[in-house]
Amino acid sequence: MSPMPRTLDISLDPEAAIEAAAAAVADGLCIVLPTDTVYGIGANAFNGDAVQRLLHAKQRGRDLPPPVLIADPLALRTLAEEVTDEIEAVTEAFWPGALTIIVRAQPSLRLDLGERGQTVAVRIPDHDFTRELLRATGPLAVSSANVSGEPAATTAAEAKAQLRRSVEIYLDGGPANDAAPSTILDLTGPPRILRQGRISAAALAEVLPELAQG
Questions:
Q1: Residue 128: is its pLDDT beyond 60?
Q2: CB of 40 within 8 A of CB of 33?
Q3: pLDDT, tens digit (0-9, with 9 covering 90-100), for 67-83
Q4: What sign does the CA torsion over 25, 28, 32, 34 have?
Q5: Distance from C-alpha of 134 to C-alpha of 23, rounded to nearest angstrom
Q6: What letter would DSSP give residue 67?
Q7: pLDDT at 6
Q8: How far apart, in Å, do the first and last CA atoms of the chain sit?
């Protein structure tokens, strides 16, 4: 728990904000960051203790592992067992953007996100600052910045009101442009939509004709 969380306005000095946030992530602490959907709480995806801090802050169990945000499509190859033609087609069409894909994870992948089985959920956000942050931190486990059961935060102040001292750095990027969540697409077998979000089933079906909405 942070003794004194800091809120940094990313518009004033984005480089300093990224440096402070990356240092906190390296120390195994949680940060709050803007994305192209709602605000997220993030932690080093490869640090099990840090991810546990994230789950504790949200008062969430290990049965709901957070997705992983990455900066570039190339990073997906380090997480996924295989980047199939289907995966390549949807990521080329919708990344960066509000599409989370669930893929089979590399068997050797050292990710302790909770009870994720052999899969991992991955997304590239359509937010320039956040992608720059991810280039500095590496992949982040990121979940909506709220206590489970409460509304997702659309401002840094809303996130701080809920998460308080469980977060080291709050990155303030102004109000979220669109609070609609990402669409979640399971690509571990026949494509299935697990959560309908900003990207419609019709848009996905144009890229994946075999899509069956689950």
A1: yes
A2: yes
A3: 999 999 999 999 999 99
A4: positive
A5: 12
A6: P
A7: 96
A8: 39
Read off the DSSP letter of residue 106: P
Cα separation, 41 vs 144, whole angstroms: 6
pTM confidence score: 0.94
User: In angstroms, rounded to a whole number, what is the distance separating the alpha carbons of residues 94 and 96?
Assistant: 6
The pair of structure tokens assigned to 35 is 């994305």
Chain centroid, CA 2 distance in Å = 22
What crossing angle do the helices spanning 14-26 and 128-137 adopt, rounded to 10°? 40
Edge to edge, the sheet with strand 40-44 lists: 6-9, 169-172, 31-33, 40-44, 140-144, 68-69, 119-123, 99-104, 183-186, 192-195, 212-213
d(CA 85, CA 20): 38
Core vs surface per residue 136-154: b (16+ CB within 10 A) or e: ebbbbbbbbbbbeeeebbb
CA torsion 11→12→15→21, rounded to 10°?
Answer: -80
Q: Quick check: helix, strand or coil at residue 91?
A: helix
Q: What is the dihedral of CA 85, 96, 34, 38, to 10 degrees?
A: -70
Tell me phi and psi for residue 22, to 5 degrees: -65, -35
What letter represents residue 173's amino acid?
G
For residue 42, the surrounding DSSP H or E stretch is strand 40-44
Which residue type occupies 112?
A: D
